[in-house]
């Protein structure tokens, strides 16, 4: 776990405590997030998860903006409860007032997409129907899928493609 990231989480909490004049329980922090999201706040578990690859590739902005963004979710939840919108006025107040950062909903980090195998299924109209590995496995367990146009059961062609 990068020490800089943990230190930034603590700094964000200290800023929130100074601003709101109250204590906040510290979250569990993990680096087990993949895909397009830079960070996720699990409100009821008081947990933060961060994407290690996006952290490595965008360290400065990640520490400044992304960490504050996710901490603000937990702080807003603890102050205002369940009924607030994820990026609503309470969260925006914290981003602007406490952290003096723009309340950006999304990051603009470049995300490298991994290659995904598609399993090609065919029907009577000879169209290709690419299936994910998960859907292909469901077919192997007996699930059937039908073409929306010709209504014939889709059958695995034996071919795969990389997308």
TrEMBL record:
Pfam families: SprT-like. It is found in: Cytoplasm. This is Protein SprT. One of its GO terms (cellular component) is cytoplasm. Its cofactor is Zn(2+). The keyword Signal does not apply. Transmembrane segments: none annotated. It comes from the Bacteria. GO terms for molecular function: zinc ion binding. Residues 7-157 form the SprT-like domain. Keywords: Cytoplasm, Metal-binding, Zinc. Zn(2+) binds at residues 69, 73. The active site is at 70. Binds 1 zinc ion. One of its GO terms (biological process) is response to stress. Belongs to the SprT family. Its main location: cytoplasm. It comes from Metapseudomonas resinovorans NBRC 106553. The keyword Transferase does not apply.
């Amino acid at each position: 776990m990068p020490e800089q990231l943990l230190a930034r989480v603590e700094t964000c909490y200290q800023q929130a405590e100074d601003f709101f004049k109250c204590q906040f329980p510290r979250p569990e922090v993990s680096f087990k997030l993949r895909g397009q999201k830079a960070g996720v706040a699990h409100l009821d578990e008081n947990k933060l998860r961060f994407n290690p690859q996006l952290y490595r590739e965008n360290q400065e902005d990640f520490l400044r903006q992304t960490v504050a963004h996710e901490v603000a979710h937990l702080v807003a939840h603890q102050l205002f409860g369940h009924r607030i919108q994820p990026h609503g006025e309470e969260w925006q107040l914290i981003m602007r007032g406490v952290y003096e950062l723009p309340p950006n909903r999304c990051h603009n980090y470049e995300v490298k997409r991994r290659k995904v195998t598609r399993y090609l299924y065919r029907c009577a109209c000879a169209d290709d129907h690419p299936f994910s590995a998960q859907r292909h496995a469901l077919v192997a367990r007996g699930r059937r899928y039908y073409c929306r146009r010709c209504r014939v059961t889709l059958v695995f062609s034996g071919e795969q493609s990389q997308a």
